[in-house]
Amino acid sequence: MSQKSFTGTGVAIVTPFRNDCSIDFKSLEKILEHIISGGVDYAVVLGTTGESVTLSRDEKKAVINFVIDTVDKRIPVVVGIGGNNTQEILNNISSTEFDNIDAVLSVSPYYNKPSQQGIYQHFKAITTASPVPVIVYNVPGRTGSNITAETTLRLAHDFSSIVAIKEASGNLGQIMQIVKNKPKNFHVISGDDALTLPMISVGAAGVISVVANAFPKEFSSMVNYALKGEIAKASILHYKLLDIINALFEEGSPSGIKAVLEILKYARNNVRLPLAPVSEKHYAKLEALVKKIK
After folding, report:
1. In the prediction, which pLDDT does 1 show?
2. pLDDT tens, 50-78?
C-alpha cells in the first residue's frame, strides 16, 4: 500500500450506540458517508474514540466488517489492534481477516509502564506478526508512559513495515526530533487536533482526527492547506474550529464528540460505562459552538 495513504486526514471513527448501548450500525453508516463526502483520506476504526476497550470480540469483528463493506474501497481503512498484553495482540492479529484492511494502529502498552526496551520489543513482535503496515500510537496521557524519540526512530529505522507514528505526546521538541531523523518514508501523524497545524508546519504528514467525525470538510481542508504550505488559509480554519476542538475533550472523549454528533443528528449521545455523557451545561456549550461553525 502506498505510504501516501497515511498523509492528510484520517478520522478516528466513533462507535455509535442505541439507547440500550447496542451498536447502532445505521448511524455508523451515516457517519462514514459524512466523512467520505467531506473529503477525508482514510478511516480509523476501533481506536480510543471508537470505545474499543468496551466492545466484545464479536462486536469488534462486526464493526470491522461493516466499515469495510460500507467504505467499499473508497478510502483506506486502518484498524486499531493494541493493548498491554503483547501475546493477546498477536493472537488477535492471527485471528483477523486482513482483506481490505490497509494498516494496523497499535497503541503503546498502557498501565504496565514498560521500559523503552519493552516498548521496542512489543512493537517488534507486532510488526513481525502483522501482514499489513503498522502505525504506532504514542499517547502518554492515556498510557502512563511515553515512547521517546529515540525508541520511535529505532523502530522506524529497523522495520520498514512500521510506516508511521500517531504522536499525541504534545511535546513538539520530541516530535521535531522524530521528523528530523526519521527515514524518508516514515510519517509523523498528529494525534491531537489542536496541534495539527503547528505539527504540519514542522514536518508532520497529517492527522488522525476526532473533530473530523463532525466537521470532515472543514478539518480536512485545513490539513490540505497546511500540507500545501498555505498557512494563512489553514489558520483561518484552524481558529474557526479551535474552541470546539478544545471543548470536545473537557469532559472526556469520545463523550464530547458524541454529543456534537447528536447535535448534528448523526448519532445518539450514548457511551458505554465507565464513560458517561457530558453534563447538560457542557452540552449547551457544545451546541453554541456548533452553531458558530455551521
Report:
1. 40
2. 999 999 999 999 999 999 999 999 999 99
- Contact of 278 with 256, CB cutoff 8 Å: yes
Q: Which member of 42, 60, 120, 137 is catalytic? A: 137
Question: What residues contact 185, with CB distance under 8 A and at least 6 apart?
Answer: 3, 160, 163
Residue among 18, 13, 82 at smallest CA distance from 42: 13
d(C-alpha 147, C-alpha 73), whole Å: 32
Q: How far apart are CA 17 and CA 272, in angstroms?
A: 8
Backbone angles phi, psi at 115, to 5 degrees: -70, 170
CA distance 57 to 76: 22
pTM above 0.85, yes or no: yes
**For residue 248, is pLDDT > 90?**
yes
Q: How far apart are CA 150 and CA 154, in angstroms?
A: 6
* Structural domains of the chain, with CATH: 3-230 (3.20.20.70)
- Is the CB of residue 13 less than 8 Å from the CB of residue 67? yes
Residue 56: how many CB atoms within 10 A of its CB? 8
Q: How far apart (Å, rounded) are the C-alpha atoms in residues 31 and 267?
A: 8
All cell numbers assigned to 91? 493472537
Strands 42-45 and 77-80 come out as parallel
Backbone angles phi, psi at 233, to 5 degrees: -65, -40
Quick one: average pLDDT of 204-217? 98
| Catalytic pick among 42, 60, 120, 166 | 166
Q: Would residue 73 show up in a list of annotated catalytic residues for this protein?
A: no
Asked whether the beta carbons of 133 and 161 are under 8 A apart, the reply is: yes
Has 166 been annotated as catalytic? yes
Q: CB of 152 within 8 A of CB of 116? A: no
